[in-house]
Amino acid sequence: MKIKRLAFLFISICFMACQPKHSGSTNSGEAHKYVLLINGEKGSREQDRMIWLNSLDSPEVINTSQGTDISNTLGTYVIIRDSFLISLDKKTQTLSKYNYTADQLVPAGELQVKGFDFISNTVDLGANQLYISGQGDKDMHLIIDPQQMKLLKKEPWNFPVAKDQFRFETSVSLHQDKLYIGYSSFGKEFDHCSDTSYLAVLDYPALNHLKITKDTRTAFPGTGVNGLFDSFIDEHEDQYLLSSPVFYHGNHPKAPTAFYKIAKGANTFDQEYFFNLSSLTKGMHLLGITAAGNGQVVLVTTPIPATGKTDYYIADVYKKTLKLLLKDQQYPNFIWGTSGFFDGSKAYFVVNEKDNQAQVYSYDAKKEVLKKGILIKGSVSSKSSYLLFAPKI
């Protein structure tokens, strides 16, 4: 299967840099804690909504009509931060910033980045520096000032890859004054893929003293798709990185989905640690939804060929165990990224149950308890996707 720059994961959309339209409000005068962004139907931007919520744990029924209409506002890629989001319109190659208010997104600046139309990863380098990697005509990375929406840097890394292949960045993190970049490589049409995981480590902020190591226990360290969960740093300051060899990420499905570990202060993958998840699912691959604390992560299976159904699991990277949470659910779509987040206490994630209905679940890793929270009804379907987060305004 030829996969042209992974584009079939995402749909080209029309972009309007205008104030969103309103269709009701959840604003009751209380200070809302959470935001739910809804893409109402894959392939369309006509039913996108933003809903402010006071609680995710209550059994309350929320109708999408209660939210703000943000149709035709956000682009294909969305970067979520505490007080703002940045959206990339791949057609115009423009980054647009929006600030959050009680019931709307307020335009707060634009930045055109010619030759850049696909976001792989993002990480904050400081209060006024945001690293964005991706592709346009070729692999590259940006560093922007998100406050002023100013371009500070735009260039490729030119790291080594397999012969006759092209680098594709699959993960990035900044930890203990080092920038960790995971990557692998593809052929020209993304039809021939490397079986090698590369890890590049640079000193930050100088971005020098480059060290690159290789590992072939699994392919593609991280997801290489903006917004999808692929790594976390635990309380011991060790990093755990989920591989993604499935066909629409790494296109190396014979390799297992697995967790790598980068020990505190290390510059390479821990050779004593490897958590083979596929060995516990009869070869089936998994994608990450969100960290859950206590070394646990919410994952979802990715059947190949696709069946439209999926199972949700909780993985424990310390015990190397996998526990079933939900079986035979609708397969999630990830238009803007993952459908869950960790608030420091519980993991929350959204599951499409059927047309016009989706369920928010919470998972408490300390108690190992899964519970239903709010129920979403209205203009959602099995093809809907969600971003769930707790902004600060």
Q: Span from first to last CA?
A: 45 Å
Helix content: under 10%
Residue windows where pLDDT falls under 50 for at least 5 positions: 1-29
Question: What is the molecular shape?
Answer: globular
The class by helix and strand makeup works out as: mainly beta
Average pLDDT level: 88
Characterize the largest beta sheet: strand count, sense, and whether it forms a barrel.
Answer: 5 strands, antiparallel
Note the run of SSEs as H and E: EEEEEEEEEEEEEEEEEEEEEEEEEEEEEE
Query: Could you tell me the radius of gyration in angstroms?
Result: 20 Å
Number of strands: 30
Range of strand content: over 45%
Oligomer: single chain
* Strand adjacency order, main sheet: 1-5-3-2-30
Q: Note the total helix count.
A: 0
